[in-house]
């Protein structure tokens, strides 16, 4: 396996990679699902609701890049409900706006980040807003250390915009002396479309935390792996199912290097 010990900093997508975005979102979408007729296909395959929600959210990323992520979530939920001819009270719609601050971390996340923090600077590059990421870092991600957090709200656009990654590159250079061009930065993410496609376009080396997304039934909202691979849009050099597996391999490589 390629050498992971040469990097100085790791940048992470947060939702879907560190935080269980799909199950958290599905929980907040449950009032809509409850209102649907029993024959509706979303009862059998709830992930379809998450995917359709994500379609609306990504449309808003592209058409309203200045819209804060909490407002994006609420508006996406409103459009999804309208599309399904379901009327939901405003308080039900608006509750989803603070979801990213309370949705659970994956079981392997915090322990994995603690291991990785022994070897690298840790940076979040997220499409959420400042308030939600602050709550997530203090709540579901509590115990882990992050050296910098860069949000779409601060940047003014959403991944996969190259502007978000250029902001990351400038911040890593300015704050930590870590230069992407010199191979010091490694990006770690679940989403193929939001993270790994632009990473290839920008020459940013990356690790795919697949979380089942290497199989069609696990694609979720991260993109169609086989299609994107066939189109030559991916160039990640490592694949692990979880942050925990990635951290274990990093630990193994650093230990082996010390014994040389």
From TrEMBL:
Keywords: Hydrolase
Ranges in coiled-coil conformation: none
Highest taxon of the lineage: Eukaryota
SUPFAM superfamilies: HAD-like (SSF56784)
GO-annotated molecular function: hydrolase activity
Gene3D superfamilies the UniProt entry points to: 1.10.150.750, HAD superfamily/HAD-like
Record-given protein name: HAD-like protein
